[in-house]
């Protein structure tokens, strides 16, 4: 079983009397990719902010390993055209960043060819790689990705999901990801959490895609989901060694 980097247990949060998250529990282990999926308003971003420590839940516990470091990749970022900023300059903005570190992350996400390009002029797919490189600076234990393929075409989405898997393998970090791309995410994650304010179902993609709660949540959107199946049917322990996967789990409704 993977060693947990972060664990949410029975976490609930309300805003102005409106329940946003209701007793959700999940964990992310080192070397594991966990993806939150669900409709708009399901609480995915709120769960992500709680994991990052940006929000405090009303109830429940959040446990993190001691001295955990985390990197965050937003959906997108807007930089004014009047700001003369190359890709390398943008990455150098992180305090304490060295040239060697920037070279390493650019090579890992395959964006080195654009290092001198104005950050405002790179393509959508390239910009997502730049944002991922920024999240990887400092060699984090856990990276949190908010819609990492936002605004990228289908071919580019597949490449980015493959990149996320490669980053996980090479860095042996945990990955917590939010995604709406149901057909693609099934090929690029170890565990899926179906969220709609509470956890509807969770487990390996092969189990989740046939789960009645999953079909009830997404309806027609899941038709044809078998076009992309998950081939990474294992997890890694804290040393990067392969161990067996977990089975899908349904939720209990009171």
Structure description:
The chain has 8 helices and 12 strands. The chain has 254 residues and is of the alpha/beta class. It has a 7-stranded mixed β-sheet, sandwiched between helices. A 3-stranded antiparallel β-sheet has the order 2-1-4, covered by helices on one side. Strands 10-11 form a two-stranded antiparallel ribbon. It is globular and about 50 Å long. It starts with a strand and ends with a strand. Mean pLDDT is 83; it is low at 224-254.
Write a concise keyword list for the protein shown above:
about 250 residues; alpha/beta; seven-stranded mixed β-sheet; three-stranded antiparallel β-sheet; 8 helices; globular; disordered C terminus
Query: Into which percent range does the helicity of residues fall?
Result: 25-40%
- Oligomer description: single chain
Average per-residue pLDDT, rounded, comes to: 83
Q: How would you write the strand order of the largest sheet?
A: 5-6-7-3-8-9-12
SS field, number of helical segments: 8
Q: Whole-number radius of gyration?
A: 18 Å
Order of helices and strands: EEEHEEHHHEHEHEEHHEEE
Kindly estimate the percentage of residues that lie in beta strands according to DSSP. 25-35%
> What are the segments in which pLDDT stays under 50 over at least 5 consecutive residues?
224-254
Largest sheet: 7 strands, mixed
Shape: globular
How many distinct beta strands? 12
* Secondary structure category: alpha/beta
Quick summary:
With 254 residues, the chain is α/β, with parallel strands linked by helices. The chain contains eight helices and twelve strands. 40% of the residues are buried.
């Amino acid at each position: 079983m993977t060693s947990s980097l972060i664990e949410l247990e029975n976490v609930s949060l309300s805003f102005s009397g409106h329940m946003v998250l209701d007793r959700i529990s999940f964990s992310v282990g080192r070397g594991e990719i966990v993806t939150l999926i669900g409709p708009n308003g399901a609480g995915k971003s709120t769960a992500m902010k709680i994991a990052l420590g940006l929000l405090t839940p009303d109830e429940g516990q959040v446990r993190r390993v001691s001295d955990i470091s985390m990197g965050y990749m937003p959906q997108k970022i807007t930089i004014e055209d009047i700001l003369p900023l190359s890709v390398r300059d943008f990455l150098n903005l992180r305090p304490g960043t060295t040239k060697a570190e920037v070279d390493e992350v650019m090579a890992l996400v395959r964006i080195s060819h654009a290092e001198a390009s104005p950050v405002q002029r790179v393509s959508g797919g390239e910009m997502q790689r730049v944002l991922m490189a920024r999240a990887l600076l400092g060699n984090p234990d856990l990276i949190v990705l908010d819609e990492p393929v936002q605004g990228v075409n289908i071919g580019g989405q597949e490449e980015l999901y493959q990149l996320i898997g490669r980053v996980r393998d090479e860095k042996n970090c945990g990955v917590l990801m939010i995604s709406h791309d149901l057909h693609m995410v099934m090929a690029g994650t170890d565990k899926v959490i179906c969220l709609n304010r509470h956890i509807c179902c969770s487990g390996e993609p092969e189990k989740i895609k046939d789960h009645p709660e999953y079909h009830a949540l997404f309806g027609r959107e899941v038709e044809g989901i078998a076009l992309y199946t998950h081939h990474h049917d294992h997890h890694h322990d804290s040393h990067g060694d392969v161990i067996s996967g977990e089975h899908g789990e349904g939720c209990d409704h009171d």
